[in-house]
Predict the 3D structure of the following.
Amino acid sequence: MSANRAAESLLALSQWEELVDLPKDCPLSASEDEGDSDGERKHQKLLEAISSLGGKNRRKLAERSEASLKVSEFNVSSEGSGEKLVLADLLEPGKTSSSLATVKKQLNRVKSKKTVELPLNKEEVERIHREVAFNKTSQVLSKWDPIVLKNRQAEQLVFPLEKEQPAFAPIEHVLSGWKARTPLEQEIFNLLQKNKQPVTDPLLTPVEKASLKAMSLEEAQMRRAELQRARALQSYYEARARREKRIKSKKYHRVMKKAKAKQALKEFEQLQKVNPTTALEELEKIEKARMMERMSLKHQNSGKWAKSKAIMAKYDLEARQAIQEQLAKNKELTQKLQVASESEEEEGGTEVEELLFPDAVNEAQVNADGPNPWMLRSCTSDAKEAEIQEDPEQLPEPLAHNVSESEGDERPVAEEEILLTEFEETQSLRKRSELNQDAESVGSQETKDSISQEVLFELRTLSQKLKENRQSRKQKASSVGTVLQVQREEPAPEEEEEPLLLQRPERVQTLEELEELEKEGCFQNELPRPMLEGHQLKKNPNNQTNAPKKKKKEKMIDLQNLLTTKSPSVKSLAVPTTIEELEDEAERDQKQMIKEAFAGDDVIRDFLKEKREAVEASKPQDVDLTLPGWGEWGGVGLKPSAKKRRRFLVKAPEGPPRKDKNLPNVIINEKRNIHAAAHQVRVLPYPFTHHRQFERTIQTPIGSTWNTQRAFQKLTTPKIVTKAGHIIKPIKAEDVGYRSSSRSDLSVVQRNPKRLSARHKKQLKKTL
Amino acid sequence: MLSRNPDNYVRETKLDLQRVPRNYDPTLHPFEVPREYVRALNATKLERVFAKPFLASLDGHRDGVNCLAKHPKSLATVLSGACDGEVRIWNQTKQKCIRAIQAYEGFVRGMCTPFCGTSFFTAGDDKTVKQWKMDAPAYGEEEEPLHTILGKTVYTGIDHHWKEAVFATCGQQVDIWDEQRTSPICSMTWGFDSISSVKFNPIERFLLGSCASDRNIVLYDMRQSTPLKTVILDMRTNTISFIFTAANEDYNLYTFDMRALDTPVMVHMDHVSAVFDVDYPPTGKEFVSASFDKSIRIFPVDKSRSREVYHTNRMQHVICVKWTSDSKYIMCGSDEMNIRLWKANVSENLGVLTSREKSAKDYNQKLKEKFRHHPHIKRIARHRHLPKSIYSQIQEQRIMKEARRRKEIHCLKHSKPGSVPIVSEKKKHVVAVVK
């Protein structure tokens, strides 16, 4: 047991030794030198300890047969044994202890350590530093991109960028160093104090405060605006009233008064409808006014003016009229509104008037006021006329459709009307003569009767006439019907004519073609056009003008076609050869092919058309200076007369002959003007991508002649505005909402670049 | 039908404007295009008639003006440094020199003003950077710099950061300095040639650009204290301006996108000699360039040809040019010791305009723009009188260019298809981009 214990202690000791050595990682040789003296002592001790043990153990020690150069209990050589000795195996104790685990870990760590690489040379390191720093810096600079872009695209830049806040001194400061000196100032101060006007910040009296509390700002503003408006309107109306008052024209005032009266009447009527009670009140008021009028001497003939006028009235028509007017007014004012007792009152009124008036005036007055026989008669006659007019309307109803049908029927109607008017005229003439004859002798009723009889008689005759007319018309109708049919047919031939006219050119064309075919045989295209034209003229001299034009045009095209197309090769029938035939066939095939391929594609015709259009476009245009409605009737659907148009048509002078006149297959554009070209832009300037864009910018005027003031100001805003005498400081990051990059920022950059870059990106996003 | 509605002609109040009825019926106003054309023609002619851009010449330097600087807070103040080491501060409105400092023995190489505007920095040939007060010294006080930094190498350029108290110098390397310290915060090098100019980006303020005499333009990041990228052009770049245009020795200017240096966005070519300086107005739509050919030109950013050329009989090689920060004037300093003040728009009326004048001006401007493609208007608008030297140079160079083009075409014609690449004008001038 004791031997066992001793062995254990030995093992532990050796382990301890190892542990001491290992972390230091000292070379073994050094420890040997050091441990020689020490080791010997330990060796002695060990030997003694071993000798004290039993003989069995000793022998075992002696039996050790490891082949090693140096035998030591401190070093275990693994020579001889097949496997490599691992440090950890040595550490394995008989039983596991927790304290050794840490040691093991340390050992592992020691083992995993590799050799440190050589540091880079200085230049390389600096270069890497520079690159990193450059990247960071360029990232920082990139945050300005949106601002730079914004400033470049800005319509206007105003410098200096930051607005200087004017430093306002608070009012307390101002007041503290100030005293009221002059009497006026003192007075003002006293007033302020009386009103409890606070000097400091709120600057509002208690009353004002209360009012402010009562009203919100918007309300107050609205109220103020309203008041302002009311004031402005008032002043305006006042001014207007003053102006009107100053107008001297009596007529104007009269008209105004009348208009007012009318207005009042209208309002009253409305009031009656809407609100009877107030209307009654109004009525009472009017009544009262009437009473007042009756009481007063106004508008009676008692005034100085009235008297003088009354004297004048005998000789002067105007004066008479004035007096009459006054009287009428009086009557009007004193007239009672009740309808029932009107006649009585009127009579009374007239009596009074008769009493009051001088005779001469009264006569006229009576005439004016009394029932005017002229007027009456005219009224009755009017009524009769209406009746008469009604009658024919009732009568011709069965005929109405006939009237509406044919235009020719208008005439009979007109005849009727003429008859009616004649009748009226005779009637009125008779009436007048009768009146003249029997004005005083015959009573009004008798005259009326006679008139009515006459009228009846007239009516009868008229109706008879009408009947006769109708009968005759009916008789005619059969004859007229045929005529109408003829008339209706008449337009038809005209219509037929037009197609004929349209057709004719074709026909003629065909004829001409025939002729052409003939002439091609003999003339071989020698002066074909004039000849043809001559033929045309001969053929149809009574043709309308547009027809030959069309012909000419079509003819021209045909000619050109003939000119351009290849004339068919004339074959001599006498010598038919197979080869030629074959060739011809091939050619024909090819032609056929081409024809099929370009079936609807007539290039030559298109070109000629284009050229014609160009020629037409280049011709100077006539200027029509006629003004419709000038010197004659104007209106919708009316055209100025041909004479006038001819007179005011300025014929454009015929320009110089076109350069391509004699070149059938060339169009020379003569639009370019050398003199104008000197002032024109030759190449499209840089920022524009299309000439139309550029033209549009040039064509929109910017001057105040063509633009409103606001638009003009907007269009002419300068790109850069600076303030005179102000120093413009460079833009700051804080101004545009960035954090300025400072030193502390940099330290962050160096510590954890990744996180910072992320943050920067976020910032950028925010600003974008 | 005749109608009479008082609402149409009666004012609501006395204070309202009288209504002037107008009929915009186009038939009543015919010939709108020809009429506007004539108006545009007249406007163009008048523009040329009133084209008098030269405003003033500020004289007082005793040697050629080598550098100019704008005051960040005051428009009227301009600083200039001459080749004899004198720095002058000018008041433009009075057209007078306010202050003159003998800052160096040799050249004043560079000058810059910090954003606060209370002081300015100068860099000289004697390896020093000096900081000066903007205000003149009080009576009896001596004219002395606030600080002097003695460096190891000659500084050829200087520029100040747009927000922080940091400035950059260039010489053998690009150094970035804190205003409070005497040693640079960091120095960046790439290559070994001397760097002629360094500029800060006014918007992304940590970015710098420099150009060296080994033909390259280098971009730097101040925060990471590393160069970012280099582009090598055909010839040396004299100056860069940071909305990123480079003024090159080969008579051209190149506008780059910083992120893609292999192709310039635009090649601006109109000068007939080396371009020395370039500057942008704060509006950023155009830039001005100064050249050895005794002229300055104004280019639109997106056009390859200049819109304007300024020259006078007496103006010699223009070394430096600046566009004022209200974008209305241009200053240029030239060899013959003068600083000249020009209008940025040739025929602009400088006084206060009434509203009618203003609207007429705007209208004329729009008309000119609208009809600018028409040959007569184009001819008048384009015509510039040039001094004989420039004119003949242009002719000569045109011939040379034509010859080169012809040769290229011949080469292309007589070689195997595909063997001779067709290189665009933009790509032709970029030799390489180094990462």
Summary: Chain A touches chain B through 62 residues (CB under 8 Å). Chain A has a mean pLDDT of 68. Residues 287 and 337 of chain A are 8 Å apart (CA to CA).
